[in-house]
Write a structure and sequence with these properties.
With about 150 residues, this protein is of the alpha+beta class. The chain has helices spanning about 5-15, 55-65, 130-135, 140-150; strands at about 30-35, 40-45, 50, 100-105, 115, 125. It starts with a helix and ends with a helix.
């Protein structure tokens, strides 16, 4: 594999204006409308990852509560193990500012590990993770409740 910095800088120069590349596989991400089209997120057609700019993830989860089908933008199974990293092999980069993404377990569903940019507030979810986050099951609520009680 070529050094991450060299590959990353070459790809940045070939990325069309207004587009971003998937942090996992360097595919140019497509803009996808959520619901009525007021909200737009970036989706990777190859691995299924979704990039949410700051506060977009919360807005999308709230849209689901209003009847929006998240299956339109999040298809595929969570945890499918897609680990093909083109840009770097040691960590993922934010597609907006190219800083290191930090892996953090979701506080309510710790089995879902999300990648967060500390600089711009963006969030990367793997295929299926958005559906998983939006389906807070009774069992997960009970685990969350008892976890909070212990603290």
């Amino acid at each position: 594999m070529v050094g991450g910095g060299v590959v990353s800088s070459c790809l940045m120069k070939t990325t069309p204006d207004g587009k971003i590349r998937c942090p996992k596989d360097a595919t140019i991400m497509e803009r996808m409308s959520v619901g009525s089209g007021d909200l737009v997120v970036d989706h990777c057609g190859r691995c299924g990852a979704i990039w949410f700019d700051a506060y977009e993830l919360d807005a999308v989860l709230k849209a689901k509560d209003k009847g929006v089908d998240l299956g339109d933008i999040d298809y595929g199974a969570a945890g499918h193990g897609y680990e093909y990293k083109v840009l770097r092999d040691d960590f993922l980069e934010c597609p907006r500012d190219h800083t290191k993404l930090v892996q953090v377990p979701d506080p309510r569903q710790p089995h879902v590990v999300i990648d967060i940019c500390r600089t711009c507030g963006g969030v990367l979810l793997d295929s299926g993770e958005l559906k998983d986050l939006s389906e807070f099951t009774l069992g997960e609520r009970m685990k969350s409740f008892f976890r909070l009680k212990k603290e």
